[in-house]
Amino acid sequence: MKHLDIFDLDQKIEIMDVGVAAIAERPIYSKLVEDQIANLNAFEGDKRHLDKLKSIYGDNVKLYNDFLFDGSTQNLYLAQPDSGMTSLFKPSEKVLKFFNGFSYFGKIEKIEKIKTKKLDNIFELPYIDFVKLDIQGSELTVLKNGLQKLKSCLAIQLEVSFVCLYEDQPSFGEVDLWMRSNGYLPHTFLDIKRWSISPTIFNNNFRRPGNQLLESDIIYIKDPFKLDLLSVNQLKKFILISHYLLKSIDLSVYLILELERRKILDKGTCRNYITNFKKYSL
Q1: d(CA 114, CA 47)
Q2: What are phi and psi of 273, to 5 degrees?
Q3: N or C: which end of the chain has fewer CB within 10 A?
Q4: How many domains does the chain have?
Q5: Is 189 part of any domain?
C-alpha cells in the first residue's frame, strides 16, 4: 500500500497508550489503527475499565493489565472510576480545595497495594514509535524506566500539570527539562485546561474556567535538527505520524524533503504532497 501516494511502509507503526481508560474523546491515533497502518498496545491497570475497553477496541488492540511505574510496590489511590483521578500518587487535599469540584473528584474510595512494572521489562512489547501517556502523575517515572522500549520513539503525547494535584507529582517544568535532555522538542499543545478557583463560580457552573492553568496534553517530537540519526523507515513513520496524528503539514514537508535529500523519494515529491494533501483525510 502506497501511503499518501508517495511511499510504501515496510512495517506497521507501533502505538502505545498508557492509561487508555482516561480517554474522553477519540484518540488522535485512531485513523492509523482503523486503517491497519498501526498496531495499538494499550495499558490499563484498573480492572474496572477492562470490559469497556474490550468492547471499544475488540481485536484491534493488545491489552496489558499492568500498572507501569518503576517496578516497586506502591499504594494505588482509587477514586471513583469516572473521575479519572485514580493514581499512584496521593491527592493533595490542599490543592484539591483550591479548585472548584476537585475535593469531590479526588475523593479516595479505597487504597490498594499493587506491584508495578517497568516498561523496559514488558518483554513481549515491541519497540514503540508513538506513545500516549495519561496516568495522573506517573508519566515521567514510566519514561525514565522505558528508555529501551522507547529508544526509537518519534513522538510522545503527555498530560502535564501546571498545578500538581498530587503529592510529589512532577510538574510540567520537570517533565519538559527531562524530555529536552533526552532528545525531544515540544511541538504543540493539543488542549490547555483551565479551572476556576474556589469559591468563585462563573454562571452557576463550577466547570466554567477562570484563568488559572491546570493541565494540558502536549506533543513532543524527536529532535528535528538531528534527522541524520533516523533511518529511512523511521522517517516514513514520522511523516505518517505528523500528517495523521499531529496534523502538522509543515513538519511532514520538512521530513519529506529529508527523504528527497537522501534520494529515497523523487525530487518534486514534496511539491506534489503540498498540492494534494487536502485529499488525504486528516
Answers
A1: 12
A2: -60, -45
A3: N
A4: 1
A5: yes
